[in-house]
Amino acid sequence: MHRIVPTARTRQRQRNISKMHRVRNRRKTSKRRRRKRGEKGAKREEGTCLELRTSVRGINSLVNLLAADVVNLAMKAKKEAEEAFEACSDVARHEIKRLHRVRCSEMTDLLSSYGKLQLDAAVRQHALLLGALNNLKTVVKA
User: Fold this and answer.
1) What torsion, rounded to 10 degrees, do the Cα atoms 42, 48, 52, 53 define?
2) How far is CA 140 from the centre of its chain?
3) pTM exceeds 0.85
């Protein structure tokens, strides 16, 4: 028969299992044994537990007060931000209206100047075409 040699991984599993059993057994030991050994958490003092409970209640009430203060501060900051935004949007609305008025007047000026330039160009082209037509008539008569 061949003998099965445990691998490093198998040995590690066995060590982990034995550690787990030790931890379980340790949890099962009584408080009296733990007190004898001097382990942590062996003896519960009623005074410290009561003090902790009252301090936790005090901390909770402080947290509630602080939470209310934080909520009030947040609401105040929100209102200030909304007012600033409204003021900004009012200013922006007026500026946009003014920009549209200026833009409309500039656009009409530009369109009228464009029309004048197109008219001048058409008059010049007309004059050139009339001159070319007259030249053509003189050439044909001759």
Assistant:
1) 100
2) 82
3) no
For 1-39, how does the pLDDT look when each residue is reduced to its tens digit (9 = 90+)?
A: 566 666 777 777 777 777 666 666 655 555 556 555 554
Q: Which two tokens stand for residue 52?
A: 């902790």
Residues 37 and 137: their CA atoms lie apart, in Å, by 133
Chain center to CA of 42 = 50
DSSP state of 30: -
Residue 25 DSSP symbol: H
CB 34 within 8 A of CB 41: yes
Please give the backbone phi and psi of residue 30, each rounded to the nearest 5 degrees, phi first: -80, 165
Tokens of 98: 């003014």
DSSP structure class, residue 29: S
